[in-house]
Structure formats: C-alpha cells, structure tokens
Specification:
- By secondary structure, the chain is of the alpha/beta class.
- The protein folds into two domains: 193 residues, Rossmann fold, CATH 3.40.50.11820; 178 residues, 3-Layer(aba) Sandwich (Rossmann fold), CATH 3.40.50.12580.
- Helix content is 33%, strand content 14%.
- The strands form two sheets. A seven-stranded parallel β-sheet has the order 3-2-1-4-5-6-7, with helices on both faces.
- α1 crosses α4.
- The chain is globular and about 70 Å long.
Length: 382
C-alpha cells in the first residue's frame, strides 16, 4: 500500500471507524515499517519480557521478515499496516513508539494516543527539517505528518535539546532526555567469542576485534582504505601478526565495495549476519568510521576509535554538520596506510580524555534506560 492510500484509509478509520485506542496496547515501528531495528526493537523486547500488563505489537510490512519474527517470538506480536484491518489494529493502540516514520500516516493522530519518537541516534549530521536537501513540499509533509503528531521526541543529553527541537520544529519541552534503549546492551557483558562464533563458525584464533562501519554516501561508493600507499598483503600480514580480526559493515547498497578485501581475517558483517549491531558494539576492541553516529554509541564503551574522513569537504558540503567535526571526533585521523596501522595498534591511549569529554557531551544517560522510559510512559497513561 502506498503512502497516499495509507493516508486515506487511516483518515477514514480514525474519524469514522469508531475506534477507541487502548492505552495498554503499545505499538512499535521502525524504518519504512519493514525493519526490526533501532530503539523500537530494543524497547519492544523489554516490554514483551517485563510488562505483562501491556500488549506490545510491532509493525512489519515485509511478509518474509514478519513470518520469520513470528516464528521466533510468536505471531501475536507482529502486524502489518498494508490493509484496512491492519491499519485498524494499529489505530487501536493507545501508545505508539517509532524510531523512523510512523506505523500509519495521517494528521491529528496524536489527539487520541501518545506518539513517542525514540529516534535512532545523535544528530551529528543535519537531520529532518534542518537537512538542506529537503524540498519545500517535503518540509510541509514532514511537519504535518510527523512533527505535529509527536507527543515527545527522545534524546540523550540536555545539550541536544535545542538542536532536536529545531530539527523537528517542535517546542523544547517536547524533547525528553530519556536515552536510547538500543544502548542498554552496552551495559551488560557480551561474550565476544560466543557471539562471533555463532555468526562466523570458521573464524581463526584471535585476541582483538575491530569493527569498520563507514557511512553511506549518495554521491559515490565508499573508499574503504583511502590511502595511496595501501597494501592488501601488508594489511593481512599485520592482522595475522597482531592476532586481530577486522569486520567491515557497509550500507547494504555498498556490500560489493568490501568484497575485494575479504579473507581469513577480514570479514563482512552485514544485515544478513546482524541487522542491528548496536547492542553488541561492546564486543569490539576498536571502531573505525567516518561520519556515522555509530561512534557516539560506541563512546559508551570507552574504547579507541579511528576516523577516516577522506572526503570530508564533499560529504559535509552536501549534508552539513551540527557540530565542528574535529571537535567531536576523539580519535586519530590517519592519512597514510602506515599511520592507519599504527592507529590500529597504538602504544598509548592518547585520546582517552577527549573521548570522556565528548561522551559527556552526547551521552548523559550512561545506564540502561528501557525500564525508566516505560515507567515514564506508564505514568503518562494513568
């Protein structure tokens, strides 16, 4: 069902369907209503396991994924919003949680229910209505369908409240510093060898793991190792010598960019292996990235990170940043391959104090938060 038809059916059912939302039915949705990821996934799983008085539902419009999740967790938890019956079921929920978009589209939906935007990260780049590439018609649509429907929008620090309010064109009192449920897993002990062993049964012996997660570029394919002196054999020998594994996680559309580099100690960790890696970020000893806000979650581990912003000017000119890049990226930015190898195996942790500073700026919530969020919502519906 397209968005226009969804808008029409939702409006008709909302105004003439005689639906009375139940505040003890909590509906969750995420990217395109077809993915089981981001904060929605982790809060849904917490509610399912810990709040017996609440009926949690998750919108999955991808039939194959919905069947897979139904087999794993139970079909009573997963619904679709591609039919009139599915939209009616969504509208029966008195609380909606979303990480991206909405489970059904319409204006004034907040009048009968709470709609809480969990969002999906710290806005390092310009997002939503601050995105310079957003056209006028899209801005009007975004404000009417999304911004005006949100009861509240969550973030991770009081420092971010003004920025989030501007991004969504809402008042600052709608921005709540409640944290991100997807980061709860970073505060528990995850067994690296057990998790990676399940994903990759044929891994060689290792003592250190590195995750390389570059951001998506809409103007060309990512250059994973942007060094004039890059040497594939030297990299493989280095990883062997250091007993290290390197996991590359590109955007799903750029999986092919990793293929030439894969081997015994360089593996591809894509959506097929793990749709969402946030909850297991703490199994990695180092993170490599460029402009992805994944590093802000990784700051909670207080482990080293490396940045490769080889096309900084081109990327930032196109999207724009909310912060000075160098001021909020606490790690080395090697420009040669040898410097890159040195950064992977540093003699001292020179960036620890800078990581602490940036972590305090972005991550005010440094403990599990799913329970606190649920308690706040329960108070709102009582």
């Amino acid at each position: 069902m397209g968005k226009a038809k969804n808008l029409l059916f939702t409006a008709c059912l909302e105004h003439f369907g005689q639906i009375r939302p139940d505040s003890h039915i909590w509906l969750f949705s995420s990217t395109d209503n077809s993915h089981y990821n981001y904060n929605s996934r982790y809060l849904f799983e917490y509610v399912k396991e810990n709040l017996p008085e609440i009926t949690p539902l998750f919108v999955i419009n991808d039939p194959e994924l919905r069947n897979s999740l139904s087999s794993k967790y139970g079909k009573q938890y997963f619904i679709e919003t591609e039919s009139i019956q599915g939209i009616r079921q969504a509208l029966s929920a008195g609380v909606w949680f979303t990480s991206a978009g909405l489970p059904a589209y319409g204006t004034g939906l907040h009048k009968k229910r709470l709609i809480i935007n969990l969002w999906h990260g710290v806005p390092l780049k310009k997002i939503a209505l601050l995105d310079p590439n957003l056209k006028k018609a899209a801005r009007i649509y975004f404000k009417k369908i999304f911004s005006e429907n949100y009861t509240c929008i969550l973030t991770t620090s009081h420092e971010l409240i003004p920025l989030m309010a501007r991004s969504f064109a809402v008042s600052e009192d709608k921005i709540k510093v409640w944290g991100q449920p997807r980061n709860d897993g970073l505060f528990q002990k995850n067994d690296c060898h057990e998790i990676l062993g399940q994903l990759f049964p044929d891994l060689p012996e290792y003592t250190k793991t590195v995750l390389y997660a570059p951001t998506f570029r809409d103007y060309g394919q990512v250059q994973l190792f942007p060094f004039k002196d890059f040497d594939q054999k030297q990299l493989e020998a280095f990883l062997e010598e250091k007993n290290m594994l390197l996991f590359i996680r590109t955007h799903v559309a750029e999986q092919g960019s990793a293929a030439p580099y894969l081997g015994k100690r360089i593996r591809f960790l894509g959506n097929e292996q793990a749709e969402d890696v946030t909850g297991i970020l703490n199994i990695f000893d180092c993170l490599i990235t460029d402009y992805s806000s994944i590093y802000i979650d990784y700051l909670l581990t207080d482990k080293p990170m490396i940045f490769l912003p080889y096309d900084r000017q081109q990327y930032l000119d196109g999207r724009g940043m909310n912060f000075d890049y160098d001021d909020v990226t606490p790690g080395p930015k090697p420009e040669t391959f040898n410097d890159f190898l040195d950064a992977l195996s540093p003699k001292e942790d020179f960036w620890k104090s800078e990581r602490t500073r940036v972590n305090r700026l972005f991550n005010e919530i440094q403990h599990p938060c799913a329970a606190d969020i649920c308690n706040k919502v329960l108070k709102m519906i009582r």
